[in-house]
Amino acid sequence: MLHRRPFLPVEILADEQIDSIHLASLEVLRDVGVEVLHPEARQLLVAAGCRFDGAERIYFDPDAVEAAVATAPSVFTLHAPNPAHDVQIGDDSVVFTSVASAPNVIGNGHARRSGNRADFQNLVRLTQALNAIQIHAGYPVEPSDIHASVRHLHATHDILTLSDKAPNVYSLGAQRNDDCLEMVRIARGVSDEQLDEQPSVTTVINTNSPLRIDHPMAEGLVRYARRGQVCIVTPFTLAGAMAPISISGALVQQNAEALAGITIAQLARPGAPVVYGGFTSNVDMRSGAPAFGTPEFMQAALVGGQLARRYGLPYRSSNVCAANVLDAQAGYESVFSLWGAVMGGANIVFHGAGWMEGGLHASFEKMVLDADLISMVGRFLQPLSTEAADLAVETIREVGPGGHFFGSAQTQAGFRTAFFKPMVSDWSNHESWIEAGSPTALDHAERLVDELLDGYEAPVLDQTVRDQLEDFVAHRVAEGGVFTDF
Prior knowledge:
With 486 residues, the chain is α/β, with parallel strands linked by helices.
């Protein structure tokens, strides 16, 4: 279900303050520069008027940056293997993804463990089953029992056969990029020319903060942009560690790095779909560990949205928390993160369901709990009606003073849909809760995970397409996949 934001996003800074961050970012790009570890990306920048120091650092020309960013689209359609799951990215749309990139997993009857293919597949099945999640966000957990040389082949195959929602792939080198694009093309049943004109896959481009874009990330920017696919440029700026300790300073660095990546994508192909990504948070200064769901994260999420709108770009934020278990901390940090993302105007909310421990593990039970939170957000985003029937003057007249509305015609007609009904908990009274064995939110979540996986139905996939995907994977695996040094 695609959500629409019926109100304007919250803006906590005045326009002149946003302009100050913008100008400071251009100053950083011009005077400090960014290390770009990709020769072709450097050539594109130099041809646009940027200065190269002869080693790896590029000093960006502000006019070239602004001209390049201005060519990016403000809205586009992301095409899924099943057209029913196509989504709009930009404008007032809000799309949620599943958790991505966790090295460990917890739940579904087992303790915390390293990522593996079986759990990966089950998390993909949950992503398919939960209507609160509209698109994928990479690997919900890293299937580390598959060798890295062929992992992208098997993982992308699983996503494209166990789900028909739009996939996300990693930018980890030219051959992996090409392999995944070919598999997406096969799954959608389109030609190369059609794929190049129809965004069908997203990839996250993380800068190496501070102020560095490594070879794989720059390779992804150039290669995916030229194929018309979606680059979500997301600096990982943690205030006090990889960015200044002040949130404003961290946002200056986030903005500079985001503009640098978006500029490269637009120079590779003007008009290529890009998303401005914000992921600025802070660290726990006692331990140095990333902190999420904090007031600082929420502030950064709100301002990130203002910056994205200044450039006319779609905006990505995240639902994140640092909790180690499914407890009150997991709930309130996720609510804070979701509130900052949604009220900040995010068009894509990454890690929408299942992220835990600062991204170190994915949780089956947290995925269904987060699906509840997302559904509540979706209900909140539904516009209120002031039509005569909803103003209910006649119903108030019918009941009159001292009556009740349980038996009114309006209540009887709408009681099944009047209010949000959570999956993970119920609103029964204390006595009935005791009689049911005092189930906790975790108990409900564990039950729902089992029910959703037991009731999972694989999407219909044409046998010819399935055979083509399997043949492609078998062929590339026989060739050895991609080179790795481990």
